Amino acid sequence: MKVVVVGAGYAGMLAANRIAKKVKGAEVTVVNPRADFVERVRLHQQVAGTAATATPLASMLRPGITVRVATVEKVGDGHVTLAGGERLDFDHAFLAVGSTVRAMAGTVPVGTWEGAEQARAELGALPAGSTVTVIGGGATGIETAAEVAEARPDLRVRIIGPSVGDGFSDRARTKARTGLECLGVEVVDDTVTEAAGGAVHLRSGAVAASDLTLWAIVSDVPDLAARSGLTVDARGRALVDECLRSVDDGRIFVVGDCAAVPGARFACALAGPQAAHAADTLVRLIGGREPEPYALRYVARAVTLGRKGAVAQFTRRDDTLRRACLTGRTAVVVKELASRGGKYGARTGTGG
Predict the structure, then answer these.
(1) 20, 62, 146, 149 — which has fewest CB within 10 A?
(2) pLDDT confidence tier of residue 336, bands split at 50, 70 and 90
């Protein structure tokens, strides 16, 4: 049996390892544009230069899995077409290309490997006293602003978003904003309309100087599904059935941010459980058993605030907020567990 996994993020890595472990004799090929697994939830550390976030794929995949470093042009009709025209035949495929960033002109995106590397280089070249602006008041923006401020206390750092930290309850939001301010981050509730000429222009009419402007909003998905002729939603995510198979082709599983799962938001915490469920569904089908529907389940929302701080808030299964929130080292642990999808991690299935 030939299985091709497109994308080597959290979902793709787990799916490939789980299939190689559970499906005897499966020929598993992972196709990815780079030879490394990028731990995307730590890209803010890459930006600040506080940690490396890339690990060679070969060290994380089970023996026998083939890695192809290439760009995929199309998936469908039983084969994956690579840039240049080469085709890889499959019996089953896993589409796991994640999400991406469409940055405002004049900014550097921090939600992609390439953008994080550019941001790291430009940040390292800034002299003391320079101003860094982070656009985006969600988790990516908060973690980037905090990490940069802690790593470079000689810089002025601000974060701008319509309502910074509004993914939390009032109590947790206050703790997150207080944590940012304790690190010296200026918190601005506004919307950036333009970034040009060494400044950011705000909807309120204010203009603020900015020597480096970082775009920390992840809101798009690659167009591979649409380009392949699969049915997609308004955001470009492939429509799937209750077992995470494309509604157009039951041989193609779609997992992670690029899957239009009802109730799902962009979150690496969902990538692992979805990939595990899809891989297990394939095992069930091969064994002649009926597949089981995927059950969406959230655990918590959490952000780190530099190397020592964090805020975490538990959620119900449907992602609505509970009252309880945590800070400090306990919150860091919750953040780690939530980002890896509870018991599911990118390395799941690499053991014997």
Answers:
(1) 62
(2) low
